[in-house]
Amino acid sequence: MNAPNYASAKFPEPRLFQTAAREKLRAGFSGGHRSQMVMSPTGSGKTILAMFLIQEALLRSKRVIFVADRRTLINQTSEVADSLGLISHGVMMSDHWRFNASLPFQIASAQTLARRDWPDADLIIIDEAHTQLKAWTEHIPTCRAAVIGLSATPFSNGLGKLFSNLVNATTMRELTESGVLVPMRVLSCTKVNMKGAATAGGEWTDKAAEERGMDIVGDVVKEWTRHAEGRKTIVFGSTIAHVEGLVREFNDNGIMAAAFTADTTESERKEILEDFKSPDSTLRVLVSVEALAKGFDQKDVSCVCDVRPLRKSLSTAIQMWGRGLRASPETGKTDLLLLDFSGNIVRFSEDYEAIYHDGLDSLDMGEKLDKTIRKDDEEEIDHPANCPQCQYVPFRKRCVSCGFEKIKPNLIEHEAGEMVEFKVGKATVGDKLTVWEQSVTLCRGQGNQASAKGRAAHLYKSITGVFPRNMPDFDAVPNVPISRAVMNKAKANSIAYRAAR
Predict the structure, then answer these.
(1) CB 238 within 8 A of CB 213
(2) How far is CA 85 from the centre of its chain?
(3) Cα distance between residue 8 and residue 52, in whole Å
């Protein structure tokens, strides 16, 4: 049998962030990180990034396993590989026609790997790695392979023990500005009333969310018809019973809708997805709990209805909303319309804004975000704040529409003209550029140089309140004198970091 010809694969021109992510991963492996996590927003093209990495490994005669946890994602990944010319791959999944263990490139079901011995591999890539499955969490700490986890929301508990390095590929803001994602427009609709609803572990129970959600299924359909009729839509409910209730209400009102849940058979799923993908399909609405929240990619979806109230899981909210953020200029799509029936956009708005603009600082930060309980402020849920500059709703600190940002008054003082100077304690340390230059100079001269740029950004943020934007590149910044105030701030940050560890 002839060896597979992986060199003939045809890839699109890599986006800048994909190239940067590959370089960061190479630097991480060179720095001794065998297991690394790549955070890249929903719709950014994580699967294409994975295929770039896979082809590079295959061209060096390495063996690669791409791991996913659902049949839909396995088939979707296999289709992407075929479309790029990486046709010589096997699929390790129960009863799959493409099983061929002899090929160096395998796309594998985590559930199948849990029932059999892992094949030897040089590189393992794990899709949706925030969903920690025993099949791979027990394998990767002791295997010899280099490991890359992919996730838009690496927030789950314990990821920092499995992956020693976090690579922020890009942010939602950068992708929206470059046209890869579309802006999200939010309409606040009739809310599921969760006042006094039962909780478990700080989160509302599925049963409580289902019972309360059933009360507004008519409102969901009525407001969708008013604001989003004609848009391809994904609706998220709390339980399968809630999903089925929503589907009945849509269908009873002459709107073709289908449930896509754990109870949907494989043949039904295939038929539904083929129908939904057709541009002129009469099926306009899919309703789901989890099955469509992660990894499902269809670019012409331009409306998401969130009818699944949450108090803790920011990652779930981001995954749901992200199903409609992919750009689709060929279909005339210009935005994502989020119809918020849950109140989630207000509960999570402050943390969502931070992730939208800056991504994550560390895997530990993501873990904390999914542990925090957001308690409803009744008045705020009913009357969320508007951005003072563009009126986008909701707004907390930094607008995800126009970028307007509140500056804490106690961090600044105004001098003559337009200059805004920053202080550490009572000492003035200069404007933003001066703070950035001092931060770079200090971190460039201390500690591990591989992390110097990140440390400089965090020192800058601790003084100014925001990460550096529109600043000279780290390597282009000249060395400047460092004030005692900045030096002391860096020492204080280091002490606080060690204490937290």
Answers:
(1) yes
(2) 27
(3) 13
The alpha carbon torsion through 416, 421, 426, 427 (nearest 10 deg) reads: -110
Sole residue written with tokens 């990140």: 454
Domain definitions of the chain by residue range: 6-170, 176-382, 409-500
Residue 458 structure tokens: 């965090």
Contact indicator for 208, 198 with CB cutoff of 8 Å: yes
Q: What is the pLDDT of residues 22-78, one digit of tens each?
A: 999 999 999 999 999 999 998 888 899 999 999 999 999 999 999 998 888 899 999
Structure tokens at 27: 């630097």
Provide the residue type at 482 as one letter.
I
Number of H helices, E strands in the chain: 19, 18
Task: Name the fold adopted by 176-382.
Answer: Rossmann fold (3.40.50)
pLDDT band of 2, cuts 50, 70, 90:
low
Among the four given CATH numbers 1.10.260.40, 1.10.10.10, 3.60.21.10, 3.40.50.300, the one describing domain 6-170: 3.40.50.300
Q: In what order do the strands lie in the sheet with 412-414?
A: 412-414, 420-424, 427-430
Where does the pLDDT of residue 411 fall: very low under 50, low under 70, confident under 90, or very high at 90 and above?
A: very low
- Could you tell me if 456 and 439 are in contact, meaning their C-beta atoms sit under 8 angstroms apart? yes
Give me the helices (H) in 307-347, please. 314-322, 344-347
Map residue 301 onto helix, strand or coil: strand
Sign of CA dihedral 70, 29, 48, 402: positive
Whether this prediction's pTM lies above 0.90 is answered by no
